[in-house]
Design goal:
Strand content: 15-25%
Mean pLDDT: 96
Binding site for substrate: 19, 80, 101-103
Subunit structure: Monomer and homodimer.
Keywords: Glycosidase, Hydrolase, Nucleotide metabolism, Transferase
Distance between the termini: 10 Å
Bound molecules: 5-hydroxymethyluridine-2'-deoxy-5'-monophosphate
Organism: Flammeovirga pectinis
Radius of gyration: 14 Å
Shape: globular
Order of helices and strands: EHEHEHEHEH
Largest sheet: 5 strands, parallel
GO biological process, one term: deoxyribonucleoside monophosphate catabolic process
Structural class: alpha/beta
Length: 132
């Protein structure tokens, strides 16, 4: 199982530690292609934006499922979700904020969940992967 985890980078790194916890939890279910999103000391590599885009798009194509944490708004995450939906990937979004974008929560092809704690989120993830 190849998992594309999506979370904010240039959108803001305040949830980076949480992303790392989510990625660690997801790793029991498969290979997380975007492990770098959880790196606390993430330094943008000396690669161009085109190289980042093309690499991530290839991972998105390769992936079997997309899991996104969308509490910190991110243009890149929104873009990945849209591309993933077009590719008909099973797509799941999680947020702690009261609401997220209507373009995410209103999309019938994205399953969106509001959660309160990391424990709740892990329970949601376990249910998703057990049903696959
Ligand atoms: O350096 C990067 N590496 C990378 O993989 N991304 C991808 C993965 C994330 O899910 C998403 C974050 O987008 P943004 O940077 O707009 O918050 O874009 C984004 C950047 C920087 O935009």
């Amino acid at each position: 199982m190849k998992i594309y985890f999506s979370g904010a980078i240039r959108g803001g790194r305040e949830d980076a530690e949480l992303y790392a916890e989510i990625i660690t939890h997801l790793q029991q279910y498969g290979d997380v292609l975007t492990e770098h999103i959880g790196q606390m000391d993430l330094q943008e590599k000396m690669i161009t934006d085109k190289e980042i885009h093309d690499q991530d798009l290839n991972w998105l194509i390769e992936s079997d499922i997309i899991i996104a944490e969308v509490t910190v708004p991110s243009l890149g995450v929104g873009y990945e979700l849209g591309r993933g939906v077009e590719m008909k990937k099973p797509t799941f979004c999680f947020h702690r904020s009261e609401k997220t974008s209507a373009m995410v929560s209103g999309c019938p092809d994205i399953k969106t969940f509001k959660y309160n704690s990391l424990l709740d989120l892990k329970v949601f993830l376990d249910e998703i992967f057990q049903k696959l």
